[in-house]
Amino acid sequence: MKTLLMNGKVYLEREQFAEAVLVEDGVIQAVGSNEELKAMAGDAEVIDCEGKTVVPGFNDSHMHLQNVGDSLYEVNIFGIGSIEEMVSRCQEYIAKYPERCWNGLVAAGWNQDIFAEKRMPNRHDLDRISTEIPIILHRVCHHIAILNTKAIEILGMDETTPEIPGGEIQREENGYPSGVFCELGAVVSQAIQPRTDAQKREILAMAMDYAAHYGVTSVQANDLRTSDCYMENLALFQDLYKKGEAKTRYRAQASFGSAEELREYVASGKFGPEQEVGDLFKMGPVKLFKDGSLGGRTAYMRNPYNDAPDTVGIETITVEDMDAFVQAAVDNNLQVATHVIGDRAISETLDAYEKSMKGGKNVLRHGLVHCQITDMDLLKRIAALDVLPMVQPVFLDYDMTVVEDRVGKDLASTSYAFKTMEDLGCHVSYGTDSPVEDCNPYWNLYAAVTRLTRGGQPEGGFYPSECVDIYTAVDAYTAGSAYTEFMEDKKGRIKPGYLADMVVLNKDIFTIDPKEIRDMYAELTMMDGKIVYRR
Question: Are 134 and 147 in contact (CB under 8 A)?
Fold first, then answer.
């Protein structure tokens, strides 16, 4: 099947454009002028771009696709202004969708920093929603969860329950869990039975539709976890791709309980190329977690928090276990991508990577997911080791309101240092960590280029010397993300021989006022040569 996109402003690379693209069987055959390609097109279906800008499909270098679907399926508690509103929304949801809540209620998105009550919720707040079913409400960062009493009882916890390594159970005066659980997502999830395969399938379809309508054609996502139905979820993904029902390419970032378990999964073929479905579904890096979140003060810092001097955050994996994981990955020729937000988490992760490198070369392209709180020495070390920053500029929308309070102005001034990373020669890629943030790429690009909140603050931008230009931002979201997955010779550019993943935009992203980027949208999304979304 042939398709000709013509009358477009087709982005090739910095300040270079063409008019038309000819696609056949999911691959770009030619790029050039309308006249040249029309002569080659034969009986191709013609799409008139009407002068609109065409860019490579956006490639989210880190997110959670199943959780995106969950957020669309579950009660919406993102951006709510009070605990009272959260309670009432959940009550209304249970009444409206009882069939979705028979085994419990799970949702994510609350943020205590914007609550009128100015505190964390607790089990007593959630008990007002229900005492009959277990309830788990995750903070927007997914690093803190609140459980109701029923969920705590199902887990078999009480005042005698010991602390769990790598996390924290906050307690009431008598020692009983308050309902606040930090960095213990895999543990608390056991309070609620897994969804059925039919529910999971519906949820994934919703997530892919959502990504496609934004122009996201590839996701690198952490949905496969041995703590959560790894083989069942893997089989579901494979079935969707084999049956041609998927609308986004997928590269799995997989998490394991131990280095030994990782070795077992690789040896048995459960984690490896045997599980892939062509260029549509790929197995990617081992995903590790070194710390928590800045908003929850669980990011692992070298020095105590300015606004909480009694803590440096939480180390969610020890140096010894980290070393074992990285070595197990390297022994099996596997990439590693580690969640790191605090400066100490970044530094210790670099230590682990460097120990495993042969000849000091990062040939497996190990990466730092988030890579937020940095000083210049850390940034230079990241560049010298050629470790890949996998960043989320959209995080600035909220984080710029708290980072100076958390870590001080000096350290804040060298953090979220997207331009410095580029200037130092780092291979930077963009993602959203969705559903922590929306997978809307235009909000992400807007944040990178302007360093403003979506409300347009602060005037001039937050440490504006770290703003990047729009070409750099688009390239990080396309070619940069393709590099992260070893696909830079097949994805991320509109070139002959590359996969036919493209987006027709409603405005010329390269010439409009940068503030207008936040309101852009996709007119048409093509993935694998097929139109998966049309406005």
Answer: yes
CA distances from 293 to 290, 296, 304, 528 (A): 10, 5, 14, 36
The 10s digit of each residue's pLDDT in 276-307 is: 999 999 999 999 999 999 999 999 999 999 99
Measure the CA–CA gap between 345 and 374, rounded to whole angstroms: 10
The DSSP annotation for 409-450 comes to HHHHTTSS-HHHHHHTT---EE---TTSS---HHHHHHHHHH
Cis (ω within 30 of 0) for the bond into 435?
yes
Q: Which residues of 317-342 are buried (b: 16+ CB within 10 A; e: fewer)?
A: beeebbbbbbebbbeeebbbbbbbbb
**Is it true that domain 66-191 has CATH number 3.10.310.70?**
yes
Residue type, 274: E
* CATH 2.30.40.10 location in the chain: 1-51+493-535
Judge contact between 38 and 26, C-beta under 8 A. no
247 neighbors 218 (Cβ within 8 angstroms): no
Q: pLDDT per residue over 113-137, tens digit each?
A: 999 999 999 999 999 999 999 999 9
Provide CATH code, domain 1-51+493-535: 2.30.40.10
- SS3 call for 534: strand
Q: What H or E segment, with its residue span, contains residue 474?
A: helix 470-477
What type of residue is 141? C
What phi and psi values does residue 304 have, to the nearest 5 degrees?
-60, 155
Q: How far apart are the first and last CA of the chain?
A: 22
- Contact of 442 with 521, CB cutoff 8 Å: yes
Q: Where are the alpha helices (DSSP H) in 315-402?
A: 319-331, 343-356, 376-385, 396-399
Where in the sequence of the chain do the CATH 3.10.310.70 domains occur? 66-191
Entry pTM: 0.90
Decide if 431 contacts 447 (C-beta within 8 A). no
Side chain identity, residue 392: Q
174 neighbors 159 (Cβ within 8 angstroms) = yes
Let me know: does 204 contact 240? Beta carbons within 8 Å: yes
